[in-house]
Amino acid sequence: MALLLGSAPPLSGRLARAAEPIENGGAVKSRKVAGDVAPGVAANVSTNDASVEAVTKTGANWIATGQGYANQRYSPLKAINAVNIGKLAPVAIAQTGYTASFETTPIVVNGVMYVTTPMVNSKQALIAMNAATGETLWTYTYTDGLTQICCGPVKRGATISGGQVYLLTIDNSLVDVDAVTGKEVWKTKVADAQAGYSETMTPQVYKNQVIIGSAGGEWPIRGFVASYDAAKGTQTWRWNTTDSQKSWAGESWKTGGGTVWTTPAIDTRLGLLIFSTGNPNPDLDGSKRAGDNLYTDSIVALHINDGTLAWYYQEVKHDVWDYDAVSNVVLFDAMQDGKPVPAAGEAGKTAFFYIVDRRTGKLIRRSQPYDMQKNMFALPTKPGVQSLPGANGGAEWSPPAFSPLTHDVYVMGMNQLMTFTTESNAGDLPGMIRLGSTFKNVAGGIQNGTLTAINVDTGKIDWNATVPQPTMGGALVTAGNVAFMGEGNGWCDAFNAKTGRKLWHFFLGAGVNAPPVAYEVQGREYIAVAAGGNFQMTYPLGDAIAVFALPK
């Protein structure tokens, strides 16, 4: 992950403007939230592995952060579509009271929505709410101890299984909360904040295992993926991301980074857990870690039952540009030699979308670049080298979406011209941040964002839309031929998934830097997204979950 510190004045996240259907050329007045939807929800919130698989076909709920184990972020719902989306309007704005960077993906089960908040004043929350009205049902509050974080006090969400909600805390606890009552069931420490570890990802649950990864790659730590018993919270296996023999000079592997920032995908047929790994440490100084630095900057597959390595594909060898692989791996079928093959794809910070055979890890194709490239692999110098992509990418942590209808993957990216230097700031003290050098935005240099549709069968770009600021948050695509994303300036956008034409947008007052979701309650389709800005990019902060629907 990149380290770009900053802050912005907080905004409340309240509505600031009405929706604007782009095709119709006019504004749709927002309606009053109170009394607009059914006031109560009595839901069965007990789910299992089969529920996660089924939801990709029904779309009624949004279970698991990527909507199914494949992380496709695709909804088969189509009541909201490219024809009628101009009428989409807010039905609820739920203000959480936690004004800070919001990166949560809401989880929705039979009318109940679960969201995590960022950490504010050492507290973070898991909130259960009515998914149609935004009414709070219960709140679980967690108080963090020591935290060390590079990129804001963020949480990317929770996951649900067997009537339990599982979340990670920034100070490295894995917590099990009863989905009906909001009461804590168990809590387990998974890493040491003093050393530099933190936890921001959403866990994944499969076969009674809670799968997690480690954040904190700017510190001299060793990344890992681990499995915990869903009923007891005890560790069942752990796999370290840095190889101690093949590709690291000396003992540099012991503090080699390679953290896992985002939720893994699972191929249930092959029994594989597939994820992306972060940069080696020090981020920008490779002088003491000669070698390829496996398994950093890679797509990695483990046998999910025991955590042993199945295969890997390294995107960037011996990275000194912070070009880590941090966006979620997505599973789909892609054409190779005229035949569909099971594939896995990852949107790299390099502005390439990498597609590998998920049976072997062998590269099938690398996409056309979806963002600008300049001096991409030029080594940093003392005077400085200006390069594109910058250290944020390409694609940052933002999860892409994949549509089986278009065979396109929808990737959020950014163009940020940066200067990479060899100015040393590397320390070797345990628990101290260790970057190894510096990168900075070029004053007056390009700063914008993109949403790109990339065909997975060819690697070619079908369309590319540009917005004024670098994009960070995540995409959603639906069977209604609509692709959704948010902008740092507060707009929530919808595009024609086939053509890239912008159809609608709505201004939420705070940066929409979280992934949208789609679901149904009592047969009505909803779109929900968090609007809370972003600490890294200094986008305006807020505290809201916005829920949209078509008029009844």
In short:
The protein is an all-beta fold and 552 residues long. It has one domain: Quinoprotein alcohol dehydrogenase-like superfamily (Methanol Dehydrogenase, Chain A), CATH 2.140.10. It has one helix at residues 49-58, and strands at residues 20-21, 74-75, 89-100, 107-109, 112-116, 123-130, 136-143, 159-161, 164-168, 173-178, 184-189, 204-206, 209-213, 224-229, 235-240, 265-267, 272-276, 298-303, 308-314, 330-336, 339-347, 353-357, 363-366, 385-387, 401-403, 408-416, 418-421, 438-441, 447-455, 461-467, 476-478, 482-486, 491-496, 502-507, 517-521, 524-531, 542-549.
Describe the protein in words.
By secondary structure, the chain is mostly beta strands. It has one domain: Quinoprotein alcohol dehydrogenase-like superfamily (Methanol Dehydrogenase, Chain A), CATH 2.140.10.10. The protein contains one helix and 37 strands. It has one helix at residues 49-58, and strands at 20-21, 74-75, 89-100, 107-109, 112-116, 123-130, 136-143, 159-161, 164-168, 173-178, 184-189, 204-206, 209-213, 224-229, 235-240, 265-267, 272-276, 298-303, 308-314, 330-336, 339-347, 353-357, 363-366, 385-387, 401-403, 408-416, 418-421, 438-441, 447-455, 461-467, 476-478, 482-486, 491-496, 502-507, 517-521, 524-531, 542-549. It has a six-stranded mixed β-sheet with strand order 1-34-33-32-31-2. It is globular and about 65 Å long.
